[in-house]
Amino acid sequence: MRRPKIIYIGGTPMTGKTTIARILSCRLQYECISTDDIGAAITAVTDGELYPRFHYMSGHDHRDYYTRTGMNTQIRDINAYHAALWPALRVLINNHATWGNPLVIEGWALRPAYMAGLRGDVAGLFLLADDALIEQRALDSPFTDGAADRALMVRRYVERSRRYTSEIRSEITRLGLSAITVTHMLKPKDIAEECMRVLGCEG
């Protein structure tokens, strides 16, 4: 069975994208890249005044950012960041699809509208989760450790996740893309197997 050369895994943070991408890359012997790592590298070599969309959290402790920044501003910041990052991601994906090695790429910067516009040997899906799962994973993650008001930080984080998920869910449906709903009952290997089935990578 022929497998897509580029596999993408999108969805909001804390849905398990990184874990699933690593499982898939090991099973398929593909390279694996996170959009978070690419974004961090770009931020490290750009000037905040010239490229403010890459530096929206500069000067903020990430825990304070979530508790003190209004939700509309948080949504605006991440939308602008993803829009600024997309040209670099598109070149990376196109290069791998054309002449590079097979690749699994994951990250929430992989918006449905962006992925639907790609051409070539590219396939993927989005992981979706409910508020309860995101909340529990945020509480279990060291990401929230040390927050002055941890409960507020988690509530804000879950609210942003809810709004983002609602937005991409409607886009996924409208664009005819694939998605898998992640629940606490599913183990990573089960989710990976379902991804393989949806992507036609079984066998």
How would you describe this protein?
- Helices cover 54% and strands 12% of the residues.
- It is built from eight helices and five strands.
- It is of the alpha/beta class and 203 residues long.
- Helix 1 crosses helix 8 (188-199) and helix 6 (131-140) packs across helix 7 (150-175).
Q: Outline, from the CA principal axes?
A: globular
Order of helices and strands: EHEHHHEHEHHEH
Strand order of the largest sheet: 2-3-1-4-5
Q: Which CATH-level-2 architecture? A: 3-Layer(aba) Sandwich
* CATH evolutionary superfamily: P-loop containing nucleotide triphosphate hydrolases
Tell me the quaternary state.
Answer: single chain
Low-confidence stretches: none
Helix content: 40-55%
The major beta sheet can be summarized as: 5 strands, parallel
Q: What count of domains describes the coordinates?
A: 1
CATH topology: Rossmann fold
Average residue-wise pLDDT: 95
Distance between the termini: 7 Å
Secondary structural class: alpha/beta
State which percent range the strand residues make up: 5-15%
How many E-type strands? 5
Supply the number of helical segments: 8
Keywords:
203 residues, alpha/beta, Rossmann fold, 8 helices, 5 strands, 54% helix, 12% strand, globular
Quickly describe the structure.
This protein is α/β, with parallel strands linked by helices.
